[in-house]
Structure formats: structure tokens, C-alpha cells
């Protein structure tokens, strides 16, 4: 008997109404995952077995609006940082530029009034004290800003079903590949109940973690995450049949950077499932965060798979299971509001 669809999962196959963005959404991007360490007890206890079919019907599987393309050969998704891209850079840019800007203004003001200032020594001392606080904080914020600006637009993951391989981009732009059945998948938690799904590549001892990537979804609902895991697991283990029906649209970033219009639209999908009366209040938030997100897109490089990986992932033009952005509904906004159906 199939389990009930998790409350957090809506009919579009995504986690609904997730307004808050937590440290879980950027953990791994900053701070980095700890490598060259043994699996811990919690990871062992929450392992997800590639061979174990979870009790979900096909219409309960959750791609979570993270699919770039799918076909008989491979499934390509984004990373777990993609949906929240723009939030970290918004906070970092506002705090960083305010700190450095305010301190620069104080220095400029002191220089302009130095001839008439009778308490110049006290003012210089005050500037030095404030500098100890303002300058390091501002520089630290600019360091965080670099995690989304002048970096990579996204970090794609390709699940190669035919060759039973997984290819993933690291944060430095390099790529690693691992056999699907040798990856240790597990849920992980940090800062309360927020969870995500990690794929650990292990050393020959099958204990030491040498590389880590994450499935795209993160949430505080384990059942919802398992619906996402089962979407990927079932594709790799059982094939692409029925998967297309769970994908509302594909992300149009396989061969180009996303447009500003799509950046704003995608941030609005984070509020999918919210009462429609709240959307006028949520739209300004999405607009606010879409600006640093799009700056990050414009200033970052687009990841490209190597010729070797592309040669391993050849697809047929008449593949009945092929789905990519060229086949998206004409109105993505209509899809978001649930007023249109896929052609």
C-alpha cells in the first residue's frame, strides 16, 4: 500500500510554501563539507539503499523543480544551492558594502575636517577602534559574496542510467564520477530538523569519505525528502517510465545562463502553495532577492561537461522519454499557478 503524499509535496512535484531559507540551503557551499573523515553513526543509521524501493506511487515522486533534462540515458539536475541562490549574496552585499561604505565615509569626513578638528587624536583613535570591527566584517562579507558572485551559475549532477554512473561538479569547477551502486546515500541534519540527502563517495576502506555531493532538495520533512530520493532512485534502478509526468518544466540552463525573467519566476516558485492573497506581498521579496541572484548569474561561469562525459551520454533524437527546456509549457507562470497543463 502506497504511503500518503507528504503534506509538504504538492501536485507539481515540489516542496510547497518554503518561505524561510536556512543555513541548510548553503551548507556545503559555505562552510565546505568535511572530507577525509569516517562515516558517523547518524549517517550509517539513515542510509538510503539504492536497491530498496520505497512505498510511493509514481504520482507521489518529487523532482522538486530541479530537473534540467531527462531521457532514457541520463537525468540531469541542479545542486541544492540553486533554489536559494541570491539570498547569501543579498545578505553579504548589504552588510559588506554598508560596513565598508560607512567606514570610508567616516574616514573621508575626518580628512575634510582635520584642519578645524581640535580632537584629532581622539578621532583617529576612534577610527582605528571602529576599523577593527568594520573592516574585517566587511571583508568577510565580501568573501561570502564570492560564493555566489564570480563563481559558477550552478553545479549540475548527471545520473547516467545506462552506464550506472553519477557525474557531479565540485565547487572549484572540477568534476568527479562515481559508480551509482558504490555511493553511500544518507540523510543528514544540522541546525534543528532541516535535512538534505548526501551522496558520499568512499575510499577503498568503504568508511572514509573522499567526495560529497547533495541531491537538490532540502527540507525539514524526511518523508518529503524520501519522495525526492525515490524519484532519482527509481529512475536509476527501474528506468524513466512515468517520470515525465512528475516534471512540470525543465530548467532552461543546459546550454545558456538563465534570464532575469526566469530568475524572478524561479524565486517565486519557492512560494508555490502559499495562499494567492499572499503573493502580492511575497513578490517584492522575490524581486529583492532576484537582483543579487541575477548578478551572480551574470558574473559566474556556466559549467560545461567534458567531451568524455558527453560521449558516454549520447541520446537518440526520437527518444520517447526525452524532456528538456525546449519542450516546456508556453506559460511557465500558468504552470506555477496551476492553470495550464503540459502539451
From TrEMBL:
What positions does the domain DUF6708 occupy? 140-316
Q: Which domain of life is it from?
A: Bacteria
Keyword Transmembrane helix included in the entry's annotation: yes
Span-the-membrane segments of this chain are 87-104, 124-145, 264-291
Q: Which UniProt keywords apply?
A: Membrane, Transmembrane, Transmembrane helix
Name of the protein described by the UniProt record: DUF6708 domain-containing protein
Q: Can you name the source organism? A: Providencia rustigianii DSM 4541
Amino acid at each position: 500500500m502506497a504511503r500518503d503524499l507528504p503534506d509538504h509535496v504538492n501536485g507539481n512535484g515540489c516542496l510547497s510554501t518554503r518561505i524561510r531559507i536556512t543555513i541548510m540551503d548553503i551548507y556545503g557551499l559555505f562552510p565546505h563539507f568535511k572530507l577525509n573523515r569516517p562515516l558517523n553513526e547518524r549517517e550509517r543509521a539513515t542510509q538510503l539503499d539504492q536497491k530498496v524501493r520505497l512505498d510511493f506511487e509514481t504520482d507521489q515522486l518529487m523532482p522538486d523543480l530541479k530537473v534540467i533534462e531527462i531521457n532514457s540515458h541520463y537525468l540531469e539536475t541542479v545542486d541544492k544551492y540553486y533554489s536559494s541562490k541570491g539570498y547569501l549574496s543579498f545578505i553579504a552585499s548589504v552588510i559588506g558594502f554598508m560596513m565598508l561604505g560607512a567606514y570610508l565615509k567616516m574616514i573621508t569626513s575626518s580628512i575634510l575636517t582635520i584642519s578645524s578638528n581640535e580632537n584629532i587624536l581622539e578621532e583617529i583613535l576612534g577610527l582605528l577602534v571602529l576599523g577593527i570591527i568594520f573592516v574585517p566584517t566587511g571583508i568577510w562579507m565580501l568573501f561570502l559574496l564570492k560564493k555566489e558572485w564570480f563563481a559558477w551559475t550552478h553545479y549540475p549532477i548527471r545520473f547516467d542510467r545506462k552506464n550506472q554512473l553519477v557525474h557531479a561538479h565540485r565547487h572549484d569547477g572540477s568534476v568527479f564520477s562515481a559508480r551509482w551502486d558504490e555511493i553511500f546515500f544518507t540523510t543528514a541534519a544540522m541546525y534543528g530538523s532541516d535535512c538534505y540527502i548526501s551522496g558520499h563517495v568512499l575510499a577503498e576502506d568503504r568508511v572514509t569519505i573522499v567526495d560529497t555531493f547533495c541531491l537538490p532538495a532540502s527540507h525539514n520533512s524526511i518523508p518529503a525528502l524520501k519522495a525526492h530520493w525515490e524519484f532519482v532512485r527509481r529512475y536509476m534502478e527501474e528506468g524513466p517510465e512515468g517520470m515525465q509526468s512528475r516534471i512540470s518544466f525543465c530548467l532552461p540552463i543546459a546550454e545558456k545562463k538563465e534570464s532575469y525573467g526566469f530568475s524572478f519566476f524561479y524565486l517565486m516558485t519557492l512560494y508555490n502553495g502559499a495562499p494567492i492573497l499572499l503573493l502580492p506581498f511575497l513578490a517584492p521579496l522575490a524581486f529583492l532577492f532576484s537582483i543579487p541572484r541575477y548578478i551572480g548569474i551574470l558574473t559566474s561561469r556556466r559549467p560545461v561537461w567534458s567531451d568524455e562525459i558527453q560521449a558516454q551520454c549520447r541520446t537518440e533524437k526520437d527518444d520517447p522519454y526525452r524532456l528538456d527546456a525546449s519542450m516546456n509549457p508556453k506559460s511557465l507562470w500558468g504552470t506555477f499557478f496551476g492553470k495550464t497543463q503540459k502539451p
